[in-house]
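I have been asked to look over a protein record a colleague put together. Thanks in advance; the entry in question is below.
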Amino acid sequence: MKKIALGADHGGYELKCAIMDHLIAAGYEVRDYGTNSCESVDYAPIAAQAARGVVSGECDLGILCCGTGIGISMAANKVKGIRAACCSDYFSAKYTRLHNDANILCMGGRVVGVGLALELVDVFLNTEFEGGRHQRRVDQITAIEDGTL
């Protein structure tokens, strides 16, 4: 079973808790990078730690939440090797794995309700990268990180 990096700031804390319960019930191993309350906390350090857990191979994929999902995705994407996608609909959550090989799903606790969030988590975790012509595009993203594109 996949090991999932999970993290949130105060704006995504309640959604993170619901996702954690869902993942554990489904048999996933979860690595919680915080936060552990609704008290105000900065999202960037949490995103960086969780993203490094994915890049290092300690975790297979990640799920991060903040108020909108945008800030925490921007922070996670600063870690080389991360392709974090902020999603609030089923199609985007599916195709960001299928075509972009996204390795972190980001969502907004003030944007996405729990029921939809759990559907997005399930499709994200159960969709494999299609490869083929999409690999070239993922390689181009890596080339941007490396400064060769």
Observations:
- The helical segments are 13-25, 43-55, 70-76, 90-98, 114-126, 133-146.
- The two ends are 36 Å apart (CA to CA).
- The longest strand covers residues 3-8.
